Structure of Hydrogenase maturation protease:
Amino acid sequence: MSILVLGLGNILLMDEGVGVRAMEAFDAAWTVPDHVSVVDGGTCGMDMLDLIASHKHLIAVDAVKTGAPPASLTVLRGDEVPAYFKGKLSPHQLGLSDLLASLRLQDEAPESVTVVGCVPMALGTGLMMSAEIEAVIPRMVTMIVEELARLGVTATPRT
């Protein structure tokens, strides 16, 4: 049962990079078994097709547009995930949507897709995230650990 934890986002657009930053924080604080891959997917181009196809479960960590207030966190699973793509937040989301659609057509899609998301506050040009978004990254890391546990995987804190 291979699992991919994929951090998504553009770190040059402030809070749009929250998925990558949360994935980095997770990777720095936790170890996972060999069948779990933790990857910085950046803006997720078509070159990610083979990587995603090689995993049974995908946990995408990203900035999301849900209509909730900034810094709100959400977990989307199963049928909830396609709704995530209706309100496009940034150019990379089209790439992930296209990847998942292509994988379904080829019958290579992961068995399950989960999105751990955060509603961004600022999407301007810059490497710094807003303080409010940076403050929720530890909770996003916890959400990743909880999603892995839901899939039967124990993440171990680094010492």
Summary: The chain has a mean pLDDT of 88. The two ends are 26 Å apart (CA to CA).
